[in-house]
Write a structure and sequence with these properties.
Pfam families: Phosphatase-like_N
Helix content: 55-70%
Largest sheet: 2 strands, antiparallel
Low-confidence stretches: none
Distance between the termini: 39 Å
Order of helices and strands: EEHHH
Protein name: Protein-tyrosine-phosphatase-like N-terminal domain-containing protein
Number of helices: 3
Number of strands: 2
Organism: Saccharothrix variisporea
Strand content: 5-15%
CATH topology: Helicase, Ruva Protein, domain 3
Domain Protein-tyrosine-phosphatase-like N-terminal: 24-78
CATH class: Mainly Alpha
Radius of gyration: 15 Å
Length: 81
């Protein structure tokens, strides 16, 4: 949702948060699929969210963070780097 404020487009931050949550859900589903059910979805989802928070704390650009968080979570869950 975009509103206008003094001639400028303003996005609702709740909408942006909701989109990130959907992306994190999709990332967790993909990692769960890649791990062939060896790790429960909820465990994967928590790992993805934790990775996202760690990356977001120091990122200047957030566009690819859900993808990077999924990769990081998968590496942690499988013990690979």
């Amino acid at each position: 949702m975009v509103d206008r404020l003094e001639g400028h487009d303003v996005r609702d931050p709740r909408d942006l948060h909701a989109r990130v949550e959907v992306q994190l859900d999709q990332a967790a589903e993909e990692v769960t699929r890649r791990l062939a059910g060896k790790v429960a979805y909820q465990v994967v989802r928590e790992a993805v969210v934790e990775s996202y928070r760690q990356l977001a704390a120091r990122a200047k650009v957030h566009g690819f963070l859900p993808i990077l968080a999924a990769r990081s979570a998968q590496q942690r869950l499988t013990g690979t780097r």
